Amino acid sequence: MNRVITFGFATYESLVQKLNSVENASSLFRLYEENKESFKHEHVVLSLRVLGRFSRQIQSDNNISEITSKLNDMVGQLSEYDVVDVLFWLRKFRSNRIPTNITNQTQNQLFQRVQQMTDNQMFSFRNMCNIYFDLSTLNHYNETLVKSISEQMLKSKQLSPFLITQLLSTVTIKINHCNLSKYDQVILTNSIKLLDDLLDSFDIEQKSLLFKVCAEVQFQNLPPKFYLPIQVKKIKDQLLEKAVQLPEESVINIFRAYDYLPRQFEVDLLRELKDKILTTLELNPSNLSNRFLIQIAERMIKMTNQRIPQDAIKKVLIEVCSRISNKTIDASSMSSLIMALMEYKKVDEVLKTLQNVEDKNIKVLNYLFINGINLKEHVDKFMQNYESKKIPFNLAVYYTVYANRDAKEHLLTLITVIREQIENYPLQALKTLKDNELNFEIKYQLQEEAYMKLVECVQTQKFDFLRVCSELINCCCNAKCREALINLYDEIFYLVNIRQIMQRLVQEGDSFDSESLSVLIYIFQKDPKSIPIQKFVDYLTLNSHKLRELIKSDQIQNVTKLLVSAYYTQPEQKQYSIVNFANRFEIAGYHSKFVTAAIRKISEQFKRNNPYSPFPDPMFVYLLIDHNILNPEEAAIQLNNENFHHQMKVQLCGIALSAERAPQNVQELGDKIKEDCFKALEKEVKYQTVLELITLGNLSPQELLSICTTLQTLLPYLSTKQYFDLIMFAKDHFILRELSLYFGEFSRKLGINRIIRVADKFARFQIYSRSAFNVLLETYGYSFYSVYNEQRIQILEIFSLAKIKQADLFKRTLELIKQRPSAYKNFYFEIIDSANILGFVESEFVDLINSIIDKTQLSRVTALKLMQYYVLADQPIEEIEKIAENIVEPKYRDSFKSAMVYELMLRKYPNSPATRLNENFLSDEIFSKARFQIAYANQIPSFQFQYCVQFLNLLGIQFESNKRIDGINVQLYLPSIESSLFIASQSSLCFDYQELNGFGLLQVKLMQTLTKQVIVLNFKQFILFQSDEERITYLKDLGLPITVDLATVDYSTLELHCNIEQDRLPHQLSKQHQRRQFGVQNYLQDFQQLDKE
Hints:
Elements (H helix, E strand, L loop, with lengths): L1 H20 L3 H10 L6 H13 L8 H7 L2 H4 L5 H16 L8 H16 L5 H13 L5 H10 L8 H16 L5 H17 L5 H14 L12 H12 L6 H11 L9 H16 L6 H13 L7 H16 L9 H8 L5 H8 L6 H9 L5 H10 L7 H14 L4 H14 L1 H10 L5 H19 L5 H10 L4 H14 L5 H11 L5 H12 L7 H9 L2 H9 L3 H14 L6 H12 L5 H17 L8 H9 L5 H7 L7 H12 L6 H20 L3 H10 L4 H14 L5 H10 L3 H8 L2 H4 L4 H14 L5 H13 L6 H13 L5 H13 L8 H11 L4 H10 L7 H13 L4 H9 L9 H14 L4 H5 L7 H11 L7 H12 L5 E6 L2 E7 L4 E6 L13 H11 L4 E6 H6 L3 H10 L33 H8 L15
Parallel strand pairs: 3-4
Antiparallel strand pairs: 1-2, 2-3
Protein name: RAP domain-containing protein
């Protein structure tokens, strides 16, 4: 008996040792076959752990199912140590998409077992951390476990660099699943706190991994602070100190980290490593391993937040090519790099090298194919090899794309294979087609077939909608698929819970494009009151890469509209979600008017429900200030909130003081802040004090001069962010003009988003800073192909607002938009309006705009603007009338210009339906007032008019002032030549004062319908002449009928009048006029209104 027991024990020990010592999955399968009968509970658990370790090597094998399915019978007997091993195996298999062969009931029992053991505190702290990581990857939440970790971690003695890194990695997983609980947040906060004491215990490799993990957390997107903790910078600084000692894997980790860090994060470490790599390549390239070169080349190409110079990337790629040619690197080992190269620009050296590779794998063939290399020979060889075998589906898809272009004789055979798979396994086929990187028409046609088949299966109840909803949304590739899904959802939406759809999308974590996002928005619009707003916002914006996908799509406007609808139907929701949404856009370097519109509408809803209450969330109030939405009355109400910090109160007070009659308490608060600030400046010049004064505004001329003098002392010592904040908070033209003088010194580090915002503010406040607009032009040229769609349109708007007629910039931009006009459909109005404002009426610009605009899908606002542009560009009346046919009850008008267009059309096309369309405005008071201003002279003549009249009298030129011709006021009419004299002042001229802008052209075209000839007098040129003799020569060259002897002219009778409000300095104007002229309260709105001189 004793000998039997001893023998059994020896066998048990021997089997355990063998299982622990296996070197690969195949060895485990052989061991299992030899010892099936001896496999007990412990051996199965140990085998599962071994399988988890080698999961990447495992192919389909019956032995896997035999081993793993045993768990179904023994899950209730697992010990606390067994649970750790089983969860490790389950995580590994799920991550590598290997069938687990366990039932849902078994999985639920496993999770219940974990819950019971957690409740009974059976796990050590280390094992709790391991289980936390595994469950998070499996998207299962155990609140008791997470709470226990959060409570124990600050006092645990088991904490190590590995565990802290693991905890941060786990939180990253939860963030990516949009499932961050309050206890997860505590773990995150505590992990960062612990770094203060434990960071020195990390070695250099652990620090580089920690740096990457901290970057992947994306603290800058997490509320409430939205910024990186100081510890991340500390890690970066320590890595920089030992940059020379960093091993290759650490360098890769650092490059990965920079892909997640915010744009503003210091790049000194990245620059140092880049220089180190290039130096090594030049002096001793053999010191760099093959694996490192492949990975670093991929990372450099994929860098999105920080640019790596193209020449640096090319040097690395040339070294990779050299090693491929020398057969040091096997091209089949660089699949990820080739995937990155497919989205990168063509590199001739890479193409030539890969053409010469003997054994080309599918990734190499893909690269050759998209670069125009004919693959007929490879397709023929492939078809010959598989003549009597079944062609694998994924390969069939690739070779179908190849054959469609290069070997059509094989196309039918390959498509038959694909359609057979689609018919039998539509879901798997659709996933494979979606993941295929060859985005050619034939691939999308097949994807459409698989999609329609899956929709059919859902309709016949072969698939449950919720099971495949993620695939149906993310694999939607064209309008037909979108329509099919919409029709399907319309049939079943009352059976589907939107929250469940959202959960499925979050679990899958797939990327989305414009089409898939469009259909998701449609689904959610059916029931906005059920939208989980915070989870929806996190799904779109919490991950920086997904946020970039959203920005690149043309769906931002639709997303913001959906958010507004959700808030309207869920009035109890706090502003927390929209704060997160807007802040993440700002951190990504993107300031969108659609986000601004959403914030405005949500704030208006709150005010309707709570008319006399301040907004409860200070972060939301800051958003209102940052997006320039808060008006003086609301700002005065917000000052009643005692929870606001001092700087916020200064901002609110500054806005409230811009009211024509600010409340007494606001005036007193403003006076006190101003007094304290000036007293502080007498003692010491500090940035914060100057910022408060500039933010407060409402300054006297003497105070403005004093602040400008202080700025001259302070500006050389400011950071880029401080300079940017001064511009954004400034309310006075005088201050902005002073700040604009230093723009060139700070512009290099501003980045394109901030340059756009600064140039936009300068343009709206009429600060004609050549340096700012030149930097914007240069930056736009450098980033021409990489800027976001809305940024491109913002740049056009800035140049049109500043009246800078850059023909080359507009032409190149419109030509680029023409290549993909559907992506700009939300910006048609801005495109047309920019051309209208600057007077781009040449045929090449009209043709470009016609090729971009889809005239069948224009809103009323855009169609009306296009019609006005056609009138300005002298397009045939037939084209104008086609546009007018699509306009029903037009509501938009920029009063003065619309009235002028109407008067012009009334005279050129009196009987046209397009002209009658404008009659809808006749009952409008503002429109009628604008027509009155066109018909009658101003009571107070302008300085330009008076000055020109003096010259006409001096030269004996006969004229009639303010003559009404056909119901229109003509300022100066010359009866002897039956001509009108048009004085082109600043509002009618472009930035260079040489050409007429769109408004000037419109005025001239109207006057051409009234008089025989229109003579244009450029007043800006006229007044800048050095002498009166030059002015007279200019008038003579215009063809004016001078009747006096020029030698007898007495110039001393000329006078210069400067007694009207328009000629006074900005700080002398009334508050009301400043708001109208410079838009102090809302410079983002309705800037098309005429700047009346």
